[in-house]
Amino acid sequence: MIVWVNGAFGAGKSSTARELVDLIPNSTLYDPEVTGGGLRGLLPGKRLAEVEDYQDLRIWRRLVVDTAAALLAELGGVLVVPMTLLRQEYRDEIFGGLAARRIDVRHVLLAPEETILRQRIDGRSEYDDPDIDARVREWCHGHIEPYRAALDWIADDAYVVDTSALTVAEAARSVADAVRAGHATPCGIVQTPEPTGETVAAGVLLFDERDRFLLVDPTYKPGWEFPGGVVEAGEPPARAGMREVAEEIGLELDAVPRLLLVDWERPEPPGYGGLRLLFDGGTLGPADTERLHLPGAELRDWRFVTEEEAADLLPPVRYRRLRWALRARERGTVLNLEAGDPVG
To answer: What is the pTM of this model?
Structure first.
């Protein structure tokens, strides 16, 4: 289990987390700031200069998941993680990656009143260098507005502790009590188990009357996707695609979709690869579109897009697959691909 301590910069996450490990038995502190600092010695300066915050680096988000999972595998127990997350898509990616490893995340928000927060920021002095301390305080003040803008989704997701009148020790005790009593419940991010070998997955392209196709935005991984998922043991792939469409967007397809392509995806650690099939699910009318609904824990959004628009939404491997699927649909044929390229 992970207790993720969120809050504005300067809200006292790190000091509260240090107290918290003394209150939760068999717990360990993991500060993702350490991972961010390590990237400064790993990535070229040119790449680091391209982002304002290391959270914008996908490698940081992936390493946070991998490091947390590795620590729990090594030590067991509870991991206490103090880290501000203000972008919902980053929360989804990180918590979804942890959920895929069957790791529960208890999301806690330290939320002092803004006037108290500003006073605490002004009182921060962590370094021997006054200039550095001043820059840190300026950074914290500069991120209060993004924190305020993110409060709606964070408060909906996290167990909120108002620390306005609490000492650090009292705040830690409140968090520990909430975890122990079950008030800080596991986040509802879908738990998609990681494969242990090659898989077969079926995706379905659904079109609107303008010949755009439907994409969905999963909460548990970066990038948009076609409706679909892994084919279960003994399940026909086309029926698996129909099942996934019903589960993901609430539509029962009337007919078995037509196969457009089969793509062999090469194994690239930590992935195992396998066969990826795309089907043509036909055209949805306005009444079908009105019936679309999303399960809150699994998908964040859906939209109809053009081939050109999909280039900015899909990861490259899925975009190549999409392009060939659309060509197969235009030609009324079925294509055989290996790693995104037609063969035979």
So the answer is: 0.62
